[in-house]
Amino acid sequence: MLTRIKNFLFFLFLLPFILCSEPVSEHLFYGIPSDSDVLLNKKGYSLGYSQKYKQAIWVSYILEAENLQKKQVPRRNKFRADPAIKKNAVKPSDYSRTGYDRGHLAPAADMTYSVLTEKESFYMTNMSPQIPGCNRGIWKRVETKVRQWAIQEERICVITGPIFAKDYKKMGKANIAVPIAFYKVVLDLTPPRKMIAFIIPNQPSKRRIQSFIVPVDKVESITGHHFFSELLNHPDYELKKKANFSDWK
């Protein structure tokens, strides 16, 4: 009897935590890449935000053919500070006259399947300083290819973010860190599963996107992130060591 009473009291102690805990976002179902200062869950994506770098260190989202094939809402290009960041939030004007684009991590074109997802894709927490020739060139070509894969495979998980040098450059009066490169990691969620990753220098390039392909575990070694941790000890985890562009054709 005493044991039952103790168990009941312990349950009452845990109840507030159970009721207050938020469900895991579908965009993080396969794992959180790394700890961050702020974890934000939006409708279309989740991200880990760094106060040090003043941008996300990773953005993760599930991209589905069904959403890409819906009637898309107009892109409004309305950048805004993220209301979830209460202290020193980056503003759109912090990029003005710096020579850098407000480069989307979760692309706006991936998020135009609803008014809310389109709106949230323009929060400044989803932006990183990109050289215009990169943002509008090679980076855009990679984003386009990933959308094609989502339609082809029906459902994929995409994680993307910046890579910084140890002595990274800072931009503007807000001292926003400027990445030397960006990574994009893709997991095919439909059988047969496969993975692929890109590391794109933050500079213009006319090279084919195939030349920037790397295994997922190389991105992990560079960034310190741990992608798809929920696949640990699962046969699919070995896919991190492979990077075959031909598998995605």
What secondary-structure arrangement, pairings included, does this model have?
Elements: H1 2-20, E1 38-41, E2 46-50, E3 55-64, H2 65-68, E4 101-104, H3 115-120, E5 127-130, H4 132-153, E6 155-163, E7 169-171, E8 176-178, E9 181-188, E10 195-201, E11 213-214, H5 216-223
Architecture overview:
The protein has 249 residues and is α+β, with helices and mostly antiparallel strands. Helices cover 24% and strands 24% of the residues. The protein is built from 5 helices and 11 strands. Strand 9 and strand 10 form a beta hairpin. The radius of gyration is 20 Å and the shape is globular. It starts with a helix and ends in a 26-residue tail after the last helix. About 7% of the residues have low confidence.
Query: Sheet bearing the most strands, described?
Result: 7 strands, antiparallel
Strand order of the largest sheet: 1-2-3-6-9-10-11
Number of strands: 11
Helical residue percent band: 10-25%
Number of helices: 5
Secondary structural class: alpha+beta
The rounded Rg comes to: 20 Å
State the end-to-end distance: 64 Å
Outline: globular
Q: Which terms would index this structure?
A:
about 250 residues, alpha+beta, two-stranded antiparallel sheet, 5 helices, about 25% strand, globular
Short description:
The chain has 249 residues and is α+β, with helices and mostly antiparallel strands. It is built from 5 helices and 11 strands. The strands form 3 sheets. Strands 1-2-3-6-9-10-11 form a 7-stranded antiparallel beta sheet. Strands 4-5 form a two-stranded antiparallel ribbon.
